[in-house]
Protein 1
Amino acid sequence: MSVRSEKVGSLIKEELGVLFQRNFSMAEFGFLTVTEVLMSPDLKIAKVYVSIFGDTERKNKSIAKLQAQKSSIRSMLGHAVRLRYTPEIIFYLDETLDRAMKLENIFQKIHEKEEIKETKNNSADA
């Protein structure tokens, strides 16, 4: 990825975050965070990864609403960011945080089982 596409992606990420904060209600979309924006080499397509707090149904509804309002979001972005060409936006659900939480729960269960085994071994030795 070129430096230019990284800079444009970072700018779009920041502007989308502000745009979502100002124009989209938490009640309707949930807690929405733009986690990453990847630009195509020609800067005409922006892959926007969003993290949405809530259950699977809430996430799917929010992504569907974002997809439905994609043209108005692109228009607002075009007014906020001065580029020769306002990129087409493609939204993706970023589930990295969900995966990390699942792994953390697994590690916690393993740790608890090891503590139980140690406690049993220590009480058997006494």
Protein 2
Amino acid sequence: MFRKFLLLITIISIQQIQAQIHIGPGQTYNNIQAASVVVKPGDTVFVHAGSYTGYQGIIGLKGTAAKPIVIMRYKNDLHDISGCWQFQACEHLTFRYLNFKANSTATGRLINMDNNGSCTTQAKYIIFDSCYFSNVTDANSITAFKFGGVDFFEVTNCVFKDIPNCNAFDFNVCHHGLIKGNYLENCQSAGHIKGGASDITMERNTFINASSGNWVVFEFGGDTGPQFYCPNDTFEVRNLRFYSNLIVGCGRGFALSSARDCDVINNTFYNCSGTTFRLLNTSNLYPKLYNNRVENNIFAFGTTAYMNASAQQAGSTYFSNNIYYSLVNANFTGPYWDTPEADLVKESSMRVYGNDTFMFVDTAKKDFHLAMGSPAIAAGKQVAEPSVDVFGYVYKNQRSIGAAEYNSTSNILVPQQNEKYYIYPNPTNTGSIILQSNETTYTHLKAIQIFSATGELVYSQSSFQMLVSIDTKRFSKGLYIVRIAENDFISTQKLIVE
């Protein structure tokens, strides 16, 4: 009898510790603010189907390391949240599978996680995972998602989309964080980290058209008012890491602004319309850059090939082992670097390639795996981090340059047909093939390369007339990959020799 009593007490205790609280239409609580007064460490708050609008303010909601508070979607219920959820001085909170979506009546910020105005009450141990943030159109919001005074945090596997008039996510006065595996598209800017922030890693994020006009995709640093810094933060930003990120199409690329001891390693920057990289002395309190590293990146330039800087001293930033690649010019000699501002930091021995070089599998299809024969393959400088590329492949001991490690089985993929060109006969056993365009001229065609199934380059041509005839008599029987380079993209086709 006594054992049964103990078992009953144990069950009751577990139920008390791990309560399920339901919010939404027809539930006990209409919204998160109403439910927060009863939430205890270890509880899970389920968000049911419905539209949740209006500001919600919560102060001091705290789980524990052993019993975090989880706020998540109920089953697969459709819902949308607008009007801004603000959490202040909270700890051990996890948000999962939630859809934050602004609308015509609530156009502004969606999340504000902060320290309630004091560094002594920093928010801590906050996780946002697999959430969706979209449709913020209010420029006065500054950002759709803001962390202001948050330590030990993760923002992972989230989507930030269609945020045309403000930043997607900002991290001010934050420390010890991970921003990983997120997808950002159609934003004025993806955002910044600043205000005495330190020890934060951004890795394996994808940015598609994530800045416009003169805005950068992302900025490490900036200028922060003196009242916002925490007492021990005598710098604008320090020990930030930008690893294995893919940046495709944007206004301006990336900025190091009054940053120190920051790393920008193994990223791919593709076709920014403005300057691709900036070095700026922006902070009034701590203006100078110091001891930053920019290594193993691919900078793929469109019509603008520009590296921008305010006046830099030797040692502010070290550029090494990057690839500078033109998408529009076969005779590329490298980007323009501001002079004399960048003279003391400009990479002295640049790896420069024109658009007759095959770098990526198929940029027209947004496939940024490295192509067979790419000069980025196994050309990386040996570094400890990052260990994993943007697609989840482990970097090899002799790593590649850029956000994607080369993998001979994954990088061939299934070749995509380019509708502007066709090969005949294919399959072939005639000893020759013809590559013909459905356009009247070949002015856009820059290069053709053919690779065997093992990756060996067996044919290359860079001058063309109306018909391109290729002798295949010396080709062994088997599968080949034909890569076709134009001014602004590369496509692939499959060729079979019988």
Protein 3
Amino acid sequence: MKELSDCRSSSTSGEKKRTGRKGASSTDRRSLSVLNARSLIDEIRPRKGCAKLFFRMERKTLAGHQPHGENVNRRVTASSRRVAKSSDALFIDVYDEPGHLIRRAQQIAVSMFHSTMRNGVTPIQYCVLRVLQDHPGIDQVTLAKLCALDTSTAADLAVRLDERGLLRRMMPMKSKRYRLLQLTPEGAALVKRLVPSAYVLSRRLLQALNKKEQGIFLRLLKKFVHLNNQESRAPLDRKFSRLRNKDSNFRSEHA
């Protein structure tokens, strides 16, 4: 009993020694606990009743002790490796990004359009004239849907083409809320001159590809535009139709 009480008193004194450094870091306290365990075992080693118990304590303490700096370095290294792998997997050269390639294709197409058509007409204006050739007498909202334009842009284009004498804006007798559009003889003649040039432009745009590649390119381009149509600011709607152009009672704004 006396030996057991001595062991308890020794362990209590060891605890006091271990917790004596108030405010020390976790690494210092852990190192101090290891030293206290060793000194405590040296003191009670002659006492057989407590020697085995504290020997097991020493082994567990030493096995669980690792310097704090090494753990931090390992975590930082592993984290940096994960970040490097993820960044490598997500890296795409800017010149290989689809958005950049589509923007460059648009630049090339517009440049070749102006160098081929040469009639002072922009690609959007050409589209408007072609749509009015196929759908005479439609209103501005329908024109916007068929050309994939917002209504304000379509109205502005109609005003500009009207000022150039290429189309007429007509107001129905029953309603003054919209305008019906129709090509003038000058506008129709211009479209006839532009259609052959548009054929030449199409050949120029695709001449760098062979016939098989041209078919694949156009098929994939149509698929891309069709599947992403709703992502556009002004989606194309070729099925959109209104009965306003069936009203034959209208008058021209110039009348």
Protein 4
Amino acid sequence: MRYTAVCRRSGGWWAISVPQLKGVHSQARRLDQVEAAIREAIALFLDVSADNIDIEIKPEVPNEVDQARRARTALRRAEESAEQATRAAAELLIKQGYTVRDAGSLLGVSPQRISQITAGKLTRSADRAGDVGETKRAA
């Protein structure tokens, strides 16, 4: 069964309780110690192996913490989206004959990053429109 461990700061400790099991409480100095502490308390209370207990840790924190976590999640999603869009645009630009320098300038990344993004899809060109040694897509 899955149990929820509700954690509240109390002085320098985390006070832990399990709403599903009346009377099961524990404490820990740090949040990373909460799971082990409450797992042991539940196992003792139910007289079962601690390995068979699934725990969800729910610390009670100020709203600002939740806002920061949501913002960081949104940022990660935006970064993933930007990376996918950059990859698609870089591949298109190289396919259309742009140099890696021009593609990098247009996308706001280095020519080296364009080469990394389009790795395996590029060949060296001895001389192309005055850009000696630039990389371009194979025909």
